[in-house]
UniProtKB/TrEMBL annotation:
<dbReference type="InterPro" id="IPR002110">
    <property type="entry name" value="Ankyrin_rpt"/>
</dbReference>
<keyword id="KW-0040">ANK repeat</keyword>
<protein>
    <recommendedName>
        <fullName>Ankyrin repeat</fullName>
    </recommendedName>
</protein>
<feature type="repeat" description="ANK">
    <location>
        <begin position="170"/>
        <end position="203"/>
    </location>
</feature>
<keyword id="KW-0677">Repeat</keyword>
<dbReference type="Pfam" id="PF12796">
    <property type="entry name" value="Ank_2"/>
</dbReference>
<dbReference type="InterPro" id="IPR051165">
    <property type="entry name" value="Multifunctional_ANK_Repeat"/>
</dbReference>
<feature type="repeat" description="ANK">
    <location>
        <begin position="237"/>
        <end position="269"/>
    </location>
</feature>
<feature type="repeat" description="ANK">
    <location>
        <begin position="382"/>
        <end position="415"/>
    </location>
</feature>
<dbReference type="InterPro" id="IPR036770">
    <property type="entry name" value="Ankyrin_rpt-contain_sf"/>
</dbReference>
<feature type="repeat" description="ANK">
    <location>
        <begin position="204"/>
        <end position="236"/>
    </location>
</feature>
<dbReference type="Pfam" id="PF00023">
    <property type="entry name" value="Ank"/>
</dbReference>
Length: 542
């Protein structure tokens, strides 16, 4: 009789394994049939709590109970059915193969594998408790609550905890973890309990506010600020919450921290301030719309900055703002507060007036000259004046402002021999070049071909003068042309600037226009380029 009972139990366990692995949707019907058969409640309970170590192999665990396997598969329906028919919610659900890992209960297994909140709710409703997890693996419990997507499940676990000031292996409280994951409800529950110091540091020297700023959680930040979190505390690298917010290019977070009194000039261990972070690509990399966010971010920080910046911040911030800000008044406001730093130079030896001239910020150039006390002919490290940078950027307004009102010389040349009109031609600003020619520049100045070749690596206009085919076919002749000098009309013809070439020829008042242009284009015949004469005639047609 005993042997028959044993075989009946083994068959029931084998069938249960089949339903667990292949047909979990009908496991409830199977357990209901067992209950209605000759099985007693004790026998049915023994079946659903049996060990399945040989029949269900796993690389991580062994010695499963049916409930443990269902939890491992993250199946709330199967868990509910097994508990309904007698599965124990406190029995160790499996045996880890790693001796350093300890699975204390089905609830512990569910928390460790971040199962669905509904599965955790079912375990809690059937008598599962967090007491043993709190005493032996509180990190697992705190981590699950901080990541739980269900507010109700998180509150149920919190209600089962005896103390909320427990810390995990990294000395982080539930407040740290909830702030890190942006869980406002959990943060609020912990704050209401008054069991955790809102400014407590973890092992890395961070507070909950620093984590919220680092992970860009504006709502959590506002909640912490309203509860008295300090905006001046720093981590192990002396970074404040504002440093982290700027690094994430989060304008909303920055505004909230600034309204709470965060300092724009706080230095981290490397001596960098939030303003320095704002100009760097480090903050822009974390943003989906880098250019727009960087502009808004710097405007926000600059608007709150009334104190004088240090040298490094001014060089980085003011130069970057001049390049990207659409509104010049924001930059001018910053300059007014830092007049003693206007003569600072960046790594390229440029002053702010050079950058403003190149990037068409005429209002900034005008302010620097008239109110900032900078000379209009100041040179950078390579001898370029603002006039040359205005020509390079096609900044007509600044160009003629310097020529007409501040006595800049239209024929002033860089150490390399580049005058404004040559720079305009080389950068493709042919209409502005025509205006400069009419202003009275020297159209008889020449440039060597070698100088133009060197400039070709910095500019984009292709010239037949530098034809690679001619260099391959006649390398000696191509090399000898380097010392030859080319006139402005020849250069304009070569660049296909017909209007400029005709204007120069008219001003020279020499031979007929057609012959002059053909002669200019035919000069490159030494490079065996048969298209030059045709190119000149095309220019005439235009």
């Amino acid at each position: 009789m005993h042997g028959k009972q044993s075989k009946k139990m083994e068959q029931a366990e084998s069938n249960l394994v089949h339903y667990l692995m292949e047909d979990r949707t009908h496991i409830g019907d199977f357990l209901q049939r067992l209950e209605k058969s000759e099985f007693s409640k004790e026998e049915l309970r023994a079946v659903v709590n049996s060990r399945l170590q040989e029949q269900i192999p796993c690389l991580v665990y062994s010695d499963y109970t049916p409930l443990g396997y269902a939890i491992f598969q993250n199946d709330p329906q199967t868990v509910d059915q097994l508990l309904k028919y007698g599965a124990c919610a406190q029995l160790a659900p499996c045996k880890p193969k790693d001796k350093n890992v300890c699975i204390l209960s089905p609830l512990h297994l569910a928390l460790k594998h971040l199962c669905q909140p509904s599965l955790v709710d079912i375990l809690l409703q059937n008598g599962a408790s967090t007491k043993n997890v709190q005493s032996r693996d509180v990190s697992c419990l705190l981590g699950f609550i901080a990541k739980c997507p269900s507010k109700e499940t998180a509150e149920a676990l919190l209600a089962d905890m005896s103390c909320l000031n427990r810390v995990d292996n990294d000395k982080r409280t539930l407040l740290h973890l909830a702030a890190m994951n942006g869980k406002c409800a959990v943060v609020n529950s912990v704050l209401i309990s008054h069991q955790v110091d809102i400014n407590q540091f973890d092992a890395t020297g961070k507070t909950a506010l620093l984590y919220a700023a680092e992970r860009n959680s504006p709502d959590v930040i506002q909640l912490l600020l309203n509860s008295g979190a300090s905006v001046h505390l720093t981590d192990a690298w002396d970074r404040t919450a504002l440093h982290f917010a700027v690094r994430r290019a989060s304008v909303t977070t920055v505004e909230r921290l600034l309204s709470a009194g965060a300092s724009v000039s706080a230095h981290d261990r490397k001596g960098l301030t939030p303003l320095t972070y704002a100009y760097s690509t480090e903050s822009i990399l974390h943003s989906r719309k880098p250019r727009a966010n960087a502009d808004k971010l710097i405007r926000c920080l600059a608007g709150s900055t009334k104190q004088t910046l240090d040298k490094r911040d001014f060089i980085h911030v003011a130069f970057h703002m001049t390049r990207i800000c659409e509104t010049d008044s924001v930059v001018i406001k910053l300059l007014e507060n830092n007049k003693g730093l206007l003569s600072q130079r960046n790594n390229n030896g440029q002053m702010l007036i050079h950058v403003a001239a190149e990037f068409r910020k005429h209002a900034i150039v005008k302010w620097l000259v008239e109110k900032g006390g900078l000379h209009s002919d100041v040179t950078d490290a390579i001898g370029w004046q603002p006039l040359h940078y205005a020509a390079k950027g096609g900044n007509k307004e600044t160009l003629f402002y310097l020529l007409q009102q501040h006595g800049a010389k239209v024929n002033s040349a860089t150490p390399g021999g580049w005058t404004p009109v040559w720079i305009l031609c080389r950068n493709g600003w042919k209409d502005i070049a025509c205006d400069v020619v009419c202003h009275g520049c020297d159209i008889k100045l020449t440039m060597t071909v070698s100088t133009l070749r060197q400039a070709d690596s910095h500019f984009s206009l292709p010239l037949s003068l530098f034809d690679p085919e001619a260099q391959r076919v006649h390398p000696v002749a191509y090399a000898r042309t380097g010392s030859r000098r080319i006139t402005l009309v020849q250069f304009a013809t070569e660049c296909r600037f017909g209007r400029l070439a005709r204007l120069i020829v008219d001003l020279q008042g020499t031979s007929p226009l057609q012959n002059r242009l053909i002669q200019a284009a035919a000069w490159t015949g030494k490079h065996k380029s048969p298209k030059n004469g045709a190119a000149a005639k095309t220019i005439l047609a235009n």
